[in-house]
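User: Quick sanity check before I run a bigger batch. Here is a single chain. Can you write out its predicted 3D structure?
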Amino acid sequence: MKKRIIALILLITLFACGAFGCGNSSGDMDEDKNSSGSMAEEGADVEKPETVEDNTPSEVSVDTSETVQLRIMVQTGLDLDTLPMFQRIEEKCNVDFVWDSVESGYSEKKAVVLASNDLPDIFFAGLTEDDIVANPELFVDFSTLMEYAPNVEKMFEEVPLTKYVSTYGDNGVLSLPQVTGFNPKSWEVMMINKNWLDKLGLEVPTTLDELEEVLKAFKEKDPNGNGKADEIPMDWPCEYGHGPYCLTGAYGFVDDKNKITLQDGKVDFLYTTEEYKKVTAYLQNLYAQGLINPEVFTTTDYSVANALSGEGDVARVGFTFGWSVEGRAGKFMDEYIVLPQLKADESVTNPLWACGPTERVNTSVACVLSKSCKNPERAMMVINEFYSEDFALQEYYGSSPEFVEKQEDGSWIVKEPINETIEEQKLKNALVNRGPCYTSPDLESRTTLPAELQSRLDQDNVYADFWPADDQIFPTVKFDNEALEELTYLKADIDKYVDQKSAEWVVNGGIDEEWDGYLEQLQKMGIDRMREIYQDAYDKRIAETQ
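Assistant: Done. Predicted structure follows.
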């Protein structure tokens, strides 16, 4: 009897000291006003029902009394050892992160690592689906370790797409995604300088013809008032998003961000459509009149292109496209408004604005566990922390309580940045898109955003009446290894040719005369096969969801 009592006391002591598991998998990792005592005490607090529910399952007993090292390869220039969010996980799970951080030359380093026997325990982002499909034998099937990761299981249940993108056929679940939440539906917005319109006594344009007249006035009437003919009526960053091809929606026809179209379950490509042809001809007409920045196709550095619209003594760009007004117009952002989708003419009754699917992931491959890991159970318990609610906002915006903070009522605040934009701040203090996290729909509903982020969502709402139906948006799909290799080859050559012809036609004209030959060349380059690959993937995706 004494031996049984002594054994029971020892077992209780081990749990109280945090010798098993990582403690509270969804409780506070930050030492804010909600914390009470040490990490071990948080993990041992059994009086809070939510702690017991979300903790590592009680039947899983993994000895964590010994500190283990976990080597993590990540694409970043940050000193991750200094970030409190990771220090807290190290303490909570009794692990020591050894960071293999690569700031430049990541692709080359990755290729060497994958070809060697010296793999890290965990990869943060950086790997692609191609890498995993080509090397499935190198990675652990997460489904064999799910008992250690209730937060991952919760993510799979709440957002089924996350499990879909993580599963590689018979090889199982070989990667985990990143879901950051707060995603606008649109990939970019269209903006116009309202101050210039007001100064010139012009109305906000609603059709393509009206936009042309406005751009002429911007060029000829010195709307920025500096006495110089330095205004650029229309501009866009050449290497960013759709840019002016968002205007195909003025004809009631849009694609996804990859120029894939979907009509009545049939896959095609934007650059083979009459709407694409019409927009290209429209742009050529504007270019011929000097209404488009003549360097738009030659300035491929996004930062250089962006500086044109956001720097200087006065605003110089009248009409442009970008992720947000703040990001594109910089210090002149207050001069601009988001322009709703135009109509090609008054006969168009259903203008549309391109957007992504309602359900999406930010990074499909954000976390991978290699078979070189000697402590896969311990690693999986740590990965479970990466998918906890407490880590979600910290991974993307910065450690708590400096950059994000949990409130007494369970809500969260992403704090306003000081003397810089939220984009600048987070890149200095968080992994952003280069690590795992899961922001659940419930967490989104309990989070207050800084003005800059909320503004982008408000800008998105301008297009709420222009969203295409869900069955017109090409969904996230997966490809097998053979199809992926073929698609990669076809798409590289076809995309290059399409971009080349678009630039030529806008600058020099000739699209009407060359259109048939262009379509024939696309066929010779394999566009029919590329369409077939996408169609097969789409059909399989739809079949799996029914």
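The chain has three domains: 11-183+360-456, 187-354, 477-546.

User: Great, the batch can go ahead then.
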